[in-house]
Design goal:
Structural class: alpha+beta
Order of helices and strands: EHEHHHEHEEHE
Shape: globular
Largest sheet: 4 strands, antiparallel
Strand content: 5-15%
Number of strands: 6
Number of domains: 2
Length: 179
């Protein structure tokens, strides 16, 4: 399944049709590096216009057709199609790292590093979180221990793939040790 805002669309569509939760998902909004390709916005209408076509916006069927057209085109910097870039990202596994019980005064450091806040209403930790490549998790844990907590801590970690990305089913494994 491909959506241009999968974090919204996946939750909505899975409530409508629970069988869709078994499908892998990809997000053309967040998984294509539009800025690296020279685009100033990730809005579908802007991307379409910048790619040389217009469409009747805000109708689901037209958004779908525009996304298909956009994904079929080569990206201006890398030369690969947007679909190829999207599939490479979607097929990757990342690890979600929660900075649970981090000091309040560290919030700006976490925000600058790309962490987002989760309020805990969804059953997941009430904490700052980020997704990192599997190869970068040890460095991220070391950063959190050194700069945020200033001591060794156990961090909640979860594996994220196309089968749970953008869903409410990303649940951390407890007792994931920092070292």
């Amino acid at each position: 399944m491909i959506a241009h805002n999968a974090s919204f669309d996946r939750r909505f569509l899975e409530r409508f049709c629970p069988a869709l939760s078994q499908n892998p998902w990809a997000c053309s909004l967040s998984e294509v590096r539009w800025a690296d390709e020279g685009f100033e916005s990730t809005k579908l209408a802007y991307l379409a216009m910048s790619s040389g076509f217009y469409y009747d916006r805000h109708r689901a069927v037209h958004d779908c057709h525009a996304t298909i057209e956009l994904l079929s085109r080569p990206l201006p910097t890398s030369g690969v199609t947007a679909l190829a870039a999207l599939l490479t990202s979607a097929r990757s596994t990342t690890l979600r790292c929660w900075a649970e019980n981090s000091p309040f005064d560290a919030k700006d450091l976490l925000k600058r590093r790309g962490y987002r806040w989760n309020g805990g209403e969804d059953g997941r930790p009430r904490a700052w979180w980020t997704d990192v490549a599997e190869s970068d998790i040890e460095a991220e844990k070391a950063y959190l221990c050194a700069k945020i907590y200033k001591r060794e801590v156990a961090l909640p970690i979860a594996r994220v793939t196309a089968f749970n990305r953008y869903s409410d089913r990303i649940v951390p494994h407890q007792n994931a040790h920092a070292t």
